[in-house]
Design a protein that fits this description.
heterodimer, A: alpha/beta, Rossmann fold, six-stranded mixed sheet, globular, B: 275 residues, MetI-like fold, 2 domains
Chain lengths: 268, 275
């Protein structure tokens, strides 16, 4: 359903974000992309909804090359491909429910949405999704009154309300503490499996990637250096992806004991 | 410990006394001060108005207040409140129209929303031009265009308000959190939806605050506008001044003072609560 055919991306300043990526992701997969910062994780993910523009190659989403889409078609693509961000990107002054309803904008006519006339079915959908991530009781509160983990759940509810086929999550738990990170990742995995969504997540913690992924994609300097199910991952895999021995900092830690995690244990 | 000590000694030996500001900066500052002082002296010489004359003038001001303005003719108030209401109306209509016009235009003058560089620069330029024109000149222009009366006052204040709110609001828009814009774009929203759901909620409190601030300015400005025939209390103020009815002038000034103070007080309180 998503296929990269020799995709490269060179930024205007000459930096090579992606180098000849070939990759195929099937419907319903939960894929985690790992790599050091600057390895091209964000660039890869943002190519799929064209928040960045690949400079060569073909990128097929739902049977269609998306590298040259214009305005209306591009908005159509983005309506079908939801996104979750590291910094949540919700409007903190707005109510939780309103933030979640913003996920419907791609499906709602301009005039209707400007006036705030969402169909009752959209409101039902939004509330149901808030329920699924456990914050429906906060629907009418200001988003700023909620904790970081809850704010990220708002953005998960928003993306679900968008009813996309694909969810892209760009470092969704990088601003959260370890226990909260695990809870949010569990929620994300749960809802994406329930709805059969294709989910692509950027993470830089190795143990987290191993815990939640069906499949790991490793990037290093814009190149694909690993691609396989977690059963094929060995400790050497991460040494290869990171290009150096693994350090304590590359691990997030379990819910309760953030310190003592042995890589041998994490990677069986 | 010992290495630390030797490092300190080295520093001490290096240059003796250490000055907080560099010599270059000191010379620059001295030059700037010299230029400013020279300009003051030149201004005094050119206009033949020195501080001593100003101090001597205080006596005349005091005499004017004591003999001419005092006591105010309070009976005259029955004739003041009606033009005062007119002044208030001019201010409130000018502010309303100006605020409504400024809202859409502010987005055109915000660099993060209007990505077309030329469009953005044109609107920036218009706002800057408007703000260089004093409101009295605007009023004179509109009196010439539509004739003496309230309408020209309202039009002048509308333009003035667009200038104030447009400038302030477009700068507020440029400093919002860009995250929500990215989120709405990534979910397939169009430009208007981005403005409505990512930008507007973030600047709404500022917009209300700037509108109230404009109202404060406009109440004061509309007093002056009457002097050039644009309606309101300024008209009778000029008439009474021309006829040397200083006891009546005193009543008008006192009324304006009280009303403006009350409006500013309420407006400030409301704006404080808007975060």
């Amino acid at each position: 359903m998503i296929e990269f055919k020799d995709v490269s991306l060179v930024y205007p300043n000459g930096f090579k974000g992606l180098k000849n990526i070939n990759l195929k992701i099937e419907k319903g997969e939960f894929v985690v992309i790992v790599g050091m910062s600057g390895a091209g994780k964000s660039t890869l993910i943002r190519s799929i909804n064209r928040m960045v523009q690949p400079t060569s190659g073909q990128l097929i989403v739902n049977g269609r090359d998306i590298t040259n889409l214009k305005d209306r078609q591009l908005r159509g693509l983005r309506t079908n491909v939801g996104m979750i961000f590291q910094s949540y990107n919700i409007v903190k002054r707005m109510s939780v429910l309103r933030n979640v309803l913003a996920g419907r904008l791609g499906h709602t006519g301009t005039l209707r949405s400007i006036l705030g006339w969402f169909p009752q079915s959209d409101l039902q959908l939004a509330m149901r999704n808030l329920e699924r991530v456990g914050i429906d009781s906060k629907a009418y509160q200001r988003a700023s009154n909620l904790s970081g983990g809850q704010q990220q759940r708002i953005s998960i509810a928003r993306v679900l309300t968008q009813e996309p086929a694909v969810i892209l999550a760009d470092e969704p738990v990088a601003s959260l503490d370890p226990p909260t990170s695990h809870k949010v990742m569990k929620d994300l995995k749960k809802v994406s499996k329930e709805d059969g969504l294709t989910t692509i997540v950027n993470l830089h913690f190795i143990d987290m990637a191993m815990e939640y992924a069906d499949r790991i994609i490793g990037l290093r300097d814009g190149e694909l250096v690993f691609d396989g199910p977690i059963s094929e991952v060995t400790p050497e895999t991460f040494v290869e992806i990171y290009g150096r021995p693994i350090k304590e900092d590359d691990l997030l830690g379990k819910d309760d004991e953030p310190e003592e995690v042995d890589l041998e244990d994490v990677v069986k | 410990m010992s290495s630390n000590k030797s490092a300190n000694e080295n520093n001490g030996k290096r240059s003796g006394r250490i000055s907080l500001t560099s010599t270059v900066l000191k010379v620059k500052m001295l030059l700037i001060i010299a230029v400013v002082v020279t300009l003051y002296i030149l201004a005094v010489i050119a206009t033949d108005s020195n501080p001593i004359r100003v101090i001597e003038g205080f006596e005349h001001i005091w005499n004017f207040v004591k003999d001419d303005l005092f006591p105010p003719n309070l009976d005259y108030f029955t004739r003041v409140w009606e033009p005062l209401l007119e002044t208030w109306n001019i201010a409130i209509f000018g502010t309303t129209f100006g605020a409504l016009l400024a809202l859409p235009v502010s987005f055109l003058a915000a660099g993060n929303i209007t990505t077309n560089k030329y469009l953005y620069r044109i609107f920036r330029f218009i706002f800057n031009i408007i703000r260089t024109v004093p409101e009295v000149i605007l009023a004179v222009l509109f009196v010439a265009l539509v004739g003496i009366g309230d309408v020209s006052g309202i039009l002048a204040l509308t333009v003035l308000t667009v200038g104030i709110i447009g400038k302030l609001l477009s700068e507020s828009i440029e400093s919002i959190d860009p995250g929500p814009i990215e989120a709405i774009q990534a979910s397939g929203g169009n430009k208007l939806q981005v403005i409505r759901y990512a930008v507007l909620p973030q600047v709404l409190p500022q917009y209300v605050s700037y509108t109230l601030y404009s109202l404060e300015i406009n109440v004061k400005a509309s007093v002056i506008l009457g002097f050039v025939g644009a309606g309101g209390i300024g008209i009778i103020l000029r008439q009474q001044l021309a006829m040397f009815n200083y006891d009546r002038v005193a009543t008008i000034i006192l009324t304006i003072f009280i009303v403006v103070t009350i409006i500013d007080f309420i407006s400030n309180r409301v704006r404080e609560r808007l975060e």
